[in-house]
Write a structure and sequence with these properties.
The protein is built from 17 helices and 27 strands. With about 550 residues, it is an alpha/beta fold. The radius of gyration is 23 Å and the shape is globular. The structure holds 5'-O-[(R)-(benzoyloxy)(hydroxy)phosphoryl]adenosine (OOB).
Length: about 550
């Protein structure tokens, strides 16, 4: 067999200054553990305990370790080499977990895409990560990913390997992977990058977030302690497994670390999730606010036994106090607010916090070494209790995105603080109340949409002269997206513009919920108005004209 010469790739790195490395180690946050290391250990300790349940399958810890070895060795035998980046686009199935664990065992780097992503987004991620492989399900929620894989390979020849869970057609099947176990590499350096997560993409396209073994394991190990996850816990993955929230806060990795049971739900609605909660005696689940409200409402009349549920976590978008009250009233379990980000920092209300705190705040950071600054527009700390921009650095918050100097210059201060883009108020005791954000993304039920990205796609339409995409308050989604469009020539219908955005190869959640045609943007300011100001003006004027609730 000819040796495949890998092209030179931008190295993956995530580095903290040496003094902080020493500090995080001395404090016991970074323990030198790795993904393959802890999975091997659990397979030894809890061999016959069920680790993962999904669809009709169940894997014990020993089986998960074995599956991971088979998949990892099979990928190496197929021609991948340790260090290769592999875009994973799988739904909430057992294979999500076994494939990712297989990649870790083989020293391959998972890059997590959402099932909702389509060609344009996957191609962007593949190019930025310089991925050489793509792993997807044959079909999930009615979409055939083999079609996407064909288009992907046709446009990016660097995607040399496509692996499919299910009917693989002309591609390699994940089920058929096999290879010699002795080809698997030794465990990686704990400070090396374990995987790439996608950013919410507040400006433009998604950025890649390199997380290390040491930093990520700390985040979910510490989350376990805060969320009460132990060996007897049963954690339900209801949100897409590729999201950082159900992955690590404490998520399915936290649950696996604890030797608990992970249950994957193919959908997040009560109809799908409630029977699973009853059958598997689920104890903990993470939801976004609209789903939590839906669950609270459905719980009143469900025939399913939800009594095993101990902790309901809500995060990803703001849960206002009134909604929090309804969730508490509707579901007989403890509410925990979670305010986190794929870049690192995660805040939790604690299980013993007073009800006022759980209702009114988004919690406080995981770590005593999470440094939080609340600053004004000039970067100066605000007076205690005042609202300002949240900056943070710490033992599990990244110091930079992958290969994106422009974004890094914007998103990080010179001394390494991450500019979260969120506006917060810090209360005594370090609890944070999220008051909004400075950036221009739309937080649509926890899915982040970049205004700029969608405007670019609208502008590519021949009849669109200009477009501004803004968030509108929405009673169900929290925020919905609204595109203000100035047309030229014949005016297309709103439906055809939505279809246009969809046809550009984007996730369905990015299609504007609403299109408003305007003759001009009619900015009141003289001279050049920033896009941000323009979006704010359009939003305010529309709300005023239509009398929408804020
Ligand atoms: C989570 O992660 P991402 O990366 O999808 O989004 C992060 C952003 C935050 O910067 C903030 O703007 C918003 O989502 N957010 C919240 C929130 N939780 C996240 N805004 C208000 N209240 C909350 N509770 O969304 C994420 C990652 C880990 C755990 C939980 C959520």
């Amino acid at each position: 067999m000819n040796a495949v010469v890998s092209p030179v790739r931008v190295p993956l790195r995530q580095a903290w200054p040496p003094a902080l490395v020493a500090r995080y180690r001395a404090a016991g946050y970074w323990r030198g553990e790795t993904f393959p290391g802890f999975l091997r250990e659990r397979a030894r300790q809890f061999a016959d305990d069920v680790a993962v349940v999904g669809g009709g399958s169940r894997l014990t810890y020993a089986q998960l370790w074995q599956e991971a070895g088979r998949i990892g060795a099979g990928l190496l035998a197929a021609g991948l080499a340790p260090g290769d980046r592999v875009v994973v686009q799988l739904g909430n199935t057992v294979e999500f977990v076994s494939v990712v664990c297989g990649l870790f065992r083989a020293g391959l780097i998972p890059v997590y895409a959402l099932p909702a992503h389509r060609l344009t987004e996957i191609a962007h991620v593949v190019r930025t990560a310089e991925a050489s492989a793509y792993i997807a399900a044959s079909a999930y929620e009615g979409f055939d990913y083999r079609t996407l894989a064909r288009e992907l390979q046709a446009s990016i020849p660097g995607v040399r390997h496509v692996l499919i869970v299910g009917d693989a057609a002309e591609f390699l099947s994940v089920a058929g992977l096999a290879g010699p176990a002795d080809a698997l590499p030794p465990d990686p350096d704990p400070q090396s990058v374990a995987f790439l997560q996608l950013s919410g993409g507040s400006t433009g396209l998604s950025k890649l977030i390199p997380r290390t073994h040491d930093d990520y394991l700390y985040s979910f190990r510490a989350s376990n302690a805060i969320c009460g996850i132990g060996r007897d816990s049963v954690y339900l993955v209801a949100l897409p497994a590729a999201h950082n929230f159900p992955m690590s806060s404490p998520g399915f990795f936290g649950a696996l670390y604890a030797g608990a049971r992970v249950v994957l739900s193919p959908g997040a609605g009560p109809d799908t999730a409630f029977p699973l909660i009853a059958r598997e005696r689920v104890t903990c689940v993470g939801l976004v606010p609209p789903l939590a409200l839906l669950w609270a409402q459905a719980a009143a009349s469900t025939p399913h036994d939800l009594s095993s549920l101990q902790v309901l976590q809500v995060g990803g978008a703001k849960l206002v106090p009134e909604a929090a009250r309804r969730v508490i009233d509707g579901l007989d379990c403890q509410l925990q607010q979670v305010f986190g980000m794929a870049e690192g920092l995660v805040n939790y209300t604690r299980l013993h916090d007073a009800p006022e705190c759980v209702l009114n705040t988004q919690g406080r950071p995981i770590s005593p070494d999470d440094e939080v600054l609340v600053v004004d527009d000039h970067g100066h700390p605000v007076a205690p209790g005042e609202v300002g921009h949240l900056l943070t650095r710490g033992p599990y918050t990244i110091r930079g995105y992958h290969n994106d100097p422009g974004a890094n210059a914007r998103s990080f201060t010179e001394d390494g603080f991450y500019r979260t883009g969120d506006r917060v108020q810090q209360l005594p005791g370090g609890y944070l109340v999220v008051q909004g954000r400075a950036g221009d993304h739309i937080n649509r039920a926890g899915e982040k949409i970049s205004a700029e990205e969608i405007e670019d796609h609208l502008l590519a339409h021949a009849s669109v002269f200009d477009a501004a995409v803004v968030s509108m308050p929405d009673p169900y989604l929290g925020e919905r997206s609204c595109a203000f469009v100035i047309t030229r020539g014949e005016r297309p219908t709103a439906a055809s513009l939505k279809a246009w955005v969809r046809s550009r190869g984007l996730a369905a959640f990015k299609v504007p919920d609403q299109v408003v045609f305007v003759d001009a943007f009619g900015t009141t300011a003289v001279g050049k108005v920033s896009r941000r100001e323009l979006r704010a003006q359009l939003r305010a004027r529309h709300i005023e004209q239509t009398g929408e609730p804020r």
